[in-house]
Amino acid sequence: MERKTHVKINRKEVMLAKLRKSCSCTPQKLKNFLMDFLPVLRWLPKYRCKEYIWGDIMSGLVIGIILVPQAIAYSLLAGLKPIYSLYTSFFANIIYFLMGTSRHVSVGIFSLISLMVGQVVDRELLLAGFDLNDDAPPASGDGSLQNDNLSNTTAFNLTIVGINTKCGKECYAIGIATALTFMAGVYQVLMGIFRLGFVSMYLSESVLDGFATGASLTILTAQVKYLIGIKIPRSQGHGMLVITWINIFRNISQANLCDVITSAICIVVLVTAKELGDRYKHKLKFPLPTELVVIVVATLVSHYGKLNEVYASSVSGAIPTGFIPPKVPEFNLMLRVALDALPLAIVSFVFTVSLSEMFAKKYAYTIRANQEMFAVGFCNIIPSFFHSFATSAALAKTLVKTSTGCQTQISGVISAMVVLLVLLFLAPLFYSLQKCVLACIIIVSLRGALRKFRDVPARYHVNKVDTLVWVVTMSASALVSTEIGLLVGIVFSMLCIIVRTQRPRTALLGQIQDTSFYEDDLEYENLSTIPKVKIFRFEAPLYYANKNYFLKSLYRLTNLDPNLEAARRKKYEKKEKQHLKKGNHRTANGLGIGETTLQLVPKQIDFQALVVDCSSISFLDTTGVNTLKEILKDYKNLNISVLLACCNPSVIDSLKRGGYFGKDFGCMQEMLFYSIHNAVLFAKDQK
């Protein structure tokens, strides 16, 4: 077979042509850019109103009803007031409607992202001198913004460059959250500009699942104190999960009986409703709004039963109505949280793109991953000016959205209108809502992630290495911190790949009877050995890290180390010459020359050709080429020919450049074969 001649591409000319094309500006190009940047301009004019509108309205209303209680609940995770969670849910839906390419994903507040934001907020509050447990009693009043701001201004005075010295705890907390969100959005937009979406490839399914499960354990732990109504310090830093559980058991005697009873009832109701919903989901036209019902009933019971005044049960307090005037995130705070924003940006992007691709594949349309990165980036940048925090796509809400007839992102606008209704008129009604009820909603929403523990045996059966990656990532995320857990998971999964290429499977092959195919002699029965020929398979790229393992495996399986064999022969020849010079046919120890031969060369070599199956060798580096040249030379000294079979074009090119076939490639046809069988036939024909 002859290789095709490839025309060399002048990369400089190509780059200059692309640069000229990208810098040119025409009306058509401007129009295309605008429509690519705002995909809504492409699909909205083609919207099939009669066909799509009712499904979009229904799914939008259902998601809006689910969003309100979840937004209020997830504010506990973020360490912020519920009003900011509602802002986040509102703006994220509007912006993704304009910029997103997925028709189905629900972008908004997400428990894992809220947890990551909350950990940074808590750390910065501690560093600024605030007490994380400085929970002021809920303010009474009409829920206006002015009353709420006054009630949440603490007695702390700060002197930080760029921050008003009269900034209270709530003011500083949302300042940190918006700065973090802005930086995460900037990272995502920059990743989109430089097309760095490939970063998500390093987050394998095992890493993401382990990360989500470990973070779920952290979320669960953080909510237990609200669940039973105890006041314990909010742990920060590494080992937060263990420290929190120690503090919980130390203070368990202070549990609020009212909160415990309320939590037990709410969890039973929520879990029962979820299980019934899962069992009869095919019969239900839309999911039961259990969270909303629980919140409404619990708020009424708490208000008329005066649970806060009589039993000291912790409640949400006043939630203001309307919108706070927009504010630019503080630049000095951005510098403080710039590093924390990077894992937040990556996790947010990966979850959004993976969900978008999953549902696009399911419903037979395409998304643009790069545009998704821009969309989620601006879902963080723009809302950060309006007192919102980081967002991402959420699987649970997306599943609900598709099951209720969603066709386009019009449903996201409907959901935003529901949240807007709460923001403008209904928010103060949640004043008496107990925090333990919100904690119950958060804990029950973790069912899916916590059920991953049940999948461990099946996962282990499928792939032990992936299970180990899952366990390590989950443990690091739960026991150390979420950010460290993600980093540990990525590094460990890459190390597993390196180790697997360092010590890959190796085998001697035998011939399948009456065929021209060859397989592992240890794995299959009734294989025929080829007289005078050894066939060696190495199932990995050959590079500097596994060179020694390649040689050791080859010598072990063929039962011959050519270097040792050559040394024995030289030693024997040297002694033989010495005795022949003396005219003595007996050696110094009384053995004959023939006996000396047996002593120095223990056994006769049982093969005259070595065939190396290169079908699993995807590439060679310089060390790999030199290793093959080394065994070619060493075996040639023993009159054993080395034949390569099934090499791919890149391996052949590496061997040519490395001089394996000589200067003029004259011996190439006698050293390289396109199948193992051809190499074996050639070896048999050799004298």
TrEMBL record:
SUPFAM superfamilies for this protein: SpoIIaa-like (SSF52091)
Highest taxon in the source lineage: Eukaryota
Catalytic activity: nitrate(in) + chloride(out) = nitrate(out) + chloride(in); oxalate(in) + sulfate(out) = oxalate(out) + sulfate(in); iodide(in) + chloride(out) = iodide(out) + chloride(in); bromide(in) + chloride(out) = bromide(out) + chloride(in)
Keyword Phosphoprotein annotated: yes
Transmembrane segments: 52-74, 94-117, 171-190, 210-228, 333-353, 374-396, 408-426, 470-499
Signal peptide: none
Any one Pfam family match given in the protein's UniProt record, by short name: Sulfate_transp
Phosphoprotein found in the keyword field: yes
GO-annotated molecular function: secondary active sulfate transmembrane transporter activity
UniProt entry keywords in alphabetical sequence: Cell membrane, Glycoprotein, Membrane, Phosphoprotein, Transmembrane, Transmembrane helix, Transport
GO cellular component: apical plasma membrane
Subcellular location: Apical cell membrane
Ranges for domain STAS: 523-683
InterPro entries assigned to the protein according to its UniProt record, in alphabetical order: S04_transporter_CS, SLC26A/SulP_dom, SLC26A/SulP_fam, STAS_dom, STAS_dom_sf
Membrane topology: Multi-pass membrane protein
Primary site of residence: membrane
NCBIfam families (UniProt xref): sulP
Family statement: Belongs to the SLC26A/SulP transporter (TC 2.A.53) family.
Protein's name in the database: Sulfate transporter
Native species: Thryothorus ludovicianus
